[in-house]
Write a structure and sequence with these properties.
This is Sugar ABC transporter substrate-binding protein. By secondary structure, this protein is α/β, with parallel strands linked by helices. Helix content is 47%, strand content 13%. The protein has 21 helices and 12 strands. The strands form 3 sheets. Strands 1, 2, 3, 6, 11 and 12 form a 6-stranded mixed beta sheet that branches. Strands 8-9-7-10 form a 4-stranded mixed beta sheet. A two-stranded antiparallel sheet has the order 4-5. Strand 1, helix 2 and strand 2 form a beta-alpha-beta unit. Helix 9 crosses helix 20. It is globular. The chain starts with a helix and ends with a helix.
Length: 444
């Protein structure tokens, strides 16, 4: 997949366009209208609640998907934002006897946790039919627990991309780097030109787990990656030390990070994007690392055009191959009934995926979705690389972990890596904290 992605991301594509679905019932709106591919029951008068972490443009685009479901079924669907700590949010709602009907979980570990507790409802026959038709075995397996299908992966992500401001690169006279050493040399040259090289959204701990995972997968290899993801090896393993030392080469150099480590720890993910692209020819930073969803923030919050002002290259190779880490949001039902099952079925269809794909900032693991649905070649190529990989991909490690370790704000891996960003010289201390938190979470 790394090779496919590397070639696919030699991008000179046109800007990211928007699009909606204004077609009549029975058709998908926009160019190349297609017939409805899934039958849904009439749910007139039924009210459903859907919870997810999405805000801003992502929330708006997902609501367009829910609007289409409402139009086809007659149900009334409300969206509830959960904040970053979705497991905590859902745990509180479940204890209070008021869980949402559907939740979209960004962590595999959260799905397994709630399924093991008996809090999730298995996917029904209609949803499973759509899954078998539209998804590879690997994506179906990620939505299971102990052999039962619970989840539908509606949204995927390629989290191994470096987005850069083309003006900053041109002014510094640098090109896209291919290796970690080249990346650091490029960053130092950009710094000498008067622009902070790298924008880091350290206030959101999940961005730091993505930094670590990409370095670790490339440097330690997929076998070690799988072992660490399952906690079959400890975080005190020498391979973790090596990855943290490598990451410390960036985090430990204040001249390479916008605002230095202290500034990065106060920078949330959306700001890490805008300060890279909102300044025109004088940005606050030249590069920002994150997934394909960065396109949403660039298009919504800046005047930069993707493919012209903003371009992307694969995460640099660290000793081995250039890494490819995937992630995704899985829809699960927390209540019985025709409504929740109908929504799971809809989210597993190409009909639902097409709506958000046309709007941009979205990659679907649905292999039957026509790639023409994506608004530009940038997103089309990223989606094609993901689909072409089939089952040969590595899923975000922190999202596979128990939520208390890999998916909770201010705790576990998020907090330990924020502490490491603040003090990247303390590799041994970071390893001890990571292992102590992981041991506690996996035991529970």
């Amino acid at each position: 997949m790394a090779a496919v992605t590397a070639s696919a991301l030699a991008l000179t594509a046109a800007g990211c366009g928007g699009g909606g679905d204004d077609g009549k019932e029975g058709e998908s709106g926009g160019e190349g209208k297609s017939s409805v591919t899934v039958d849904l029951p009439k749910l007139t008068g039924e009210k459903l609640q859907v919870a997810a972490v999405w805000t801003g443009a992502e929330q708006k685009n997902f609501k367009a998907v829910l609007d289409e479901f409402e139009k086809r079924t007659g149900a009334e669907v409300s969206f509830v934002p959960t904040g970053d700590s979705i497991s905590t949010f859902l745990g509180t709602k479940i204890e209070g006897g008021q869980p949402p009907d559907i939740a979209l979980l960004p962590q595999v570990g959260a799905l397994k946790q709630f399924a093991a507790q008996g809090k999730l409802k298995p996917a029904g026959e209609e949803a499973q039919e759509q899954l078998e038709k539209n998804f590879s075995q690997g994506w179906r397996d990620l939505g299971t627990h102990e052999g039962r299908q619970y989840g539908v992966y509606f949204k995927a992500a390629n989290k191994s991309l470096i987005w850069y401001n083309t003006a900053a690169f041109e002014n510094a006279g640098v090109e896209e780097p291919g290796t970690w050493d080249d990346f650091l040399r490029t960053a130092r040259t950009i710094s000498d030109s008067g622009v902070a090289p790298v924008s880091v959204g350290g206030a959101d701990g999940w961005t730091l787990t993505d930094w670590f995972e990409n370095v670790y997968l490339s440097q330690a290899g997929p076998e070690k990656y799988d072992q660490l993801a399952e906690h079959e090896i400890k975080w005190t393993d020498p391979s973790v030390k090596e990855a943290l030392e490598t990451l410390g080469e960036l985090f430990g150099d204040k001249t390479l990070i916008a605002g230095g480590p202290e500034g990065a720890l106060q920078t949330e993910f959306p700001k890490s994007v805008t300060q890279t692209f909102a300044g025109g020819d004088a940005p606050e930073a030249a590069m920002v690392f994150e997934g394909d969803f960065v396109a949403v923030n660039i298009s919504s919050d800046t005047k930069a055009e993707i493919g012209t002002d903003a371009k992307v290259f694969p995460f640099p190779a660290v000793g081995g191959e250039s890494p490819v880490v995937s992630a995704g949001d899985v829809a699960v039902a927390l209540k019985d009934g025709k409504g929740p099952q109908a929504l799971l079925t809809f989210l597993a269809s190409t009909d639902a995926a097409e709506i958000w794909a046309k709007a941009g900032g979205f990659i679907s693991p649905n292999k039957e979705l026509d790639l023409k649905a994506y608004p530009d070649d940038v997103q089309r190529d990223i989606a094609k690389a993901l689909i072409d990989a089939g089952d040969d991909f590595r899923f975000d490690m922190s999202d596979q972990a128990p939520a208390s370790f890999g998916g909770t704000k201010g705790e576990g891996e998020w907090k330990a890596l924020q502490d490491f960003l603040k003090n990247p010289d303390d590799v041994a201390g970071a390893q001890k904290r990571l292992e102590a938190e992981a041991a506690k979470a996996y035991k529970n």
